[in-house]
Amino acid sequence: MEEKLALKGGEPVRKEVLPFVPREADIDDEETNAVLDVLRTKKLSQLVSEKVSEFEEAFARYYGVEHAIAVNSGTTALHIALAAAEIGPGSDVILPPYTFMATANAILHQNLVPVFADVNPRTYNIDPTEIEERITEKTKVVIPVHMLGQPADMDPIVEMAKRHDLVIIEDCAQANGAEYKGKKVGTFGDMGCFSFYLNKHMTTGGEGGIIITDDEELAKRAKSIRNHGRPEVSPYPNVPAHNVYTCIGYNYRMTAIQAAIGLVQLRKLGGFNAQRRKNADYLTKNIGGIKGIEPPYVRDDMKHVYWAYGARVVKEELGVSRDTFAKALLAEGIKAEGYCPIPVHLQEVIKDKVGYGGGSCPFDCPWYGRRVEYQKGLCPNAERLSSEDLLLPVYQTLTEDDLNDVVAALRKVASNVSELR
Ligand SMILES: Cc1ncc(COP(=O)(O)O)c(C=O)c1O
After folding, report:
1. Out of 176, 179, 184, 204, which could bridge 196 as a Cys pair, Cβ 3.0 to 4.6 Å?
2. pTM for the full model?
3. CATH code for position 184
4. Beta partners for 392?
5. Exposure pattern of 62-84 as b/e (b: 16+ CB <10 Å)?
6. 21 Cβ contact partners less than 8 Å away, ≥ 6 residues apart
């Protein structure tokens, strides 16, 4: 093809750069009015407003679970879930290395030790066989992460967790509304944690999160941890509950304004996800034939909700690396990236065991009683994926022109890779 690449001085496919995840919330007057309504009440905190429990009830209904505990981020949802599980310091938590750093950070916040199980190279999700191989007497929790919107393989994980008496905390931050064999993610484990950060499937005003569970005890503990460690009911006849502290707690509360936005966004979630899936199908149909670019592999029994479209660059077929290809795409106006250019187990904080107070706790704490090492080669699939995955945009606010620009840019760069060598 004769079109000159923008990187080489040609005309770009589009002038305004299109990011792979949205940089703006998909909101309209409904959210604005909901916020104004809350503002007019002047009752802005969860402690004085009914909005947060209204949102929690709506979210629990959507997921068909008993309890939802709204918090201020997906990270704090994970931290609370681990704390509520009451796993003692020095225990291991298994997670995938192809995830957001927050999954590992939450583990460290609770003085627990992250143990990485490699991912399936096709689905990018944690491989159940790899989990099994890493289970020891120290393993207490497994965190399957439903990456990019596709559910992890939950049946074997649930079976294994039962056999080894492990707590399952599902990280659903990228998969709000996804389904595994017809059942929603977040409902397989003991707890499911969600993020409402700006670029997620729905937002609660830029930041936010929630934990879902059917377990009343876990829900009670999670509510207390979210609110400074206060109990629901005071054990003292003359001291109110808000003056009593029964566990280590935090202020991880969601505000009434966030909850009001969440209530509106939750009603729109099904429509948002349907459009994401449609956009992803459109990309798959139109880029399927490009040699060296593989569309995401989606299992038939999964409902993928595409936080992003996780294509893969096969360098041997395409002729250039993912990074070279992505650079040329950016010049064409499409910002596509790898998700984990450094897998989590090789991030400095983990690899160098950077712990509390300049020491290496919790990794090498006396109570851990064992040396853990994180080095290259530990998770070869994730390490390979780190230079091959290419996240493309499919969020619901894209226009048909935007999608066509993505296709055009991919085709243009792929047909001119010889210029990039
Ligand atoms: C897989 C995963 N886990 C956890 C989080 C943390 O969520 P938040 O950014 O709301 O703290 C995110 C989101 O960014 C995520 O993608």
Report:
1. 204
2. 0.98
3. 3.40.640.10
4. 309
5. bbebebbbbbbbbbbbbbbbbbb
6. 199, 307, 308, 391, 393, 395
Angle, helix 400-415 to helix 256-287, in steps of 10 degrees: 50
Rounded to 5 degrees, what are φ and ψ at 125? Answer: -100, 160
Helix (H, G, I), strand (E, B) or coil at 389: strand
Residue 412 to residue 55: CA distance in whole angstroms: 46
Cα(357)–Cα(362) distance, rounded to whole angstroms? 11
Q: How far, in Å, is the centroid of ligand 1 from the Cα of 141?
A: 18
Q: CA-CA distance, 5 to 11, in Å (whole number)?
A: 7
Number of domains making up the chain:
1
Question: 320 φ, ψ to 5°?
Answer: -135, 165
What is the domain extent for residue 83? Answer: 29-267
What residues of the chain score a pLDDT lower than 70?
1-2
Q: Enter the tokens of residue 327.
A: 């650079």
Looking from the CA of residue 146, the nearest atom of ligand 1 is 1
pLDDT in tens, 114-131: 999 999 999 999 999 999
- The answer to whether 302 touches 178, Cβ cutoff 8 Å, is yes
- Residue 255, domain member (yes or no): yes
Tell me if 281 is assigned to some domain: no
Report which protein residue has its CA nearest ligand 1's atom 10: 74
15 part of a folded domain: no
